[in-house]
Amino acid sequence: FVPGVDSLYSGMSILQGKENIFSDCKKKFWNTYKTGLMYWPFVQLSNFVLVPVYLRTAYTGLCGFLWAIFICFSQQSGDGTAKSAFLWFRREKVNADGEPSEK
């Protein structure tokens, strides 16, 4: 279970005043769901194996915050995959340095 994917897409579509509020959910749900299935098990495994007990709540909160950022990015301009987020981040970094984005 990936929390909030379908409700976020349809809720944001309502707030943005889109006519078809389920179009983003139909386009991006499965990609986001699969990304969440790769992200959350890794988070929980690392949480129980590597993180001390007293920091587990903060670690999980930080990972949830990063997931929320990814979901918001995906709703705005991504396709629901981690690859699109990494490509976007890399492109922004290159453009911020003043170098051309083409190699």
From TrEMBL:
<dbReference type="GO" id="GO:0005739">
    <property type="term" value="C:mitochondrion"/>
</dbReference>
<keyword id="KW-1133">Transmembrane helix</keyword>
<protein>
    <submittedName>
        <fullName>MPV17 mitochondrial inner membrane protein like</fullName>
    </submittedName>
</protein>
<dbReference type="GO" id="GO:0016020">
    <property type="term" value="C:membrane"/>
</dbReference>
<dbReference type="InterPro" id="IPR007248">
    <property type="entry name" value="Mpv17_PMP22"/>
</dbReference>
<keyword id="KW-0812">Transmembrane</keyword>
<comment type="similarity">
    <text>Belongs to the peroxisomal membrane protein PXMP2/4 family.</text>
</comment>
<dbReference type="Pfam" id="PF04117">
    <property type="entry name" value="Mpv17_PMP22"/>
</dbReference>
<keyword id="KW-0472">Membrane</keyword>
<feature type="transmembrane region" description="Helical">
    <location>
        <begin position="53"/>
        <end position="73"/>
    </location>
</feature>
<dbReference type="GO" id="GO:0061668">
    <property type="term" value="P:mitochondrial ribosome assembly"/>
</dbReference>
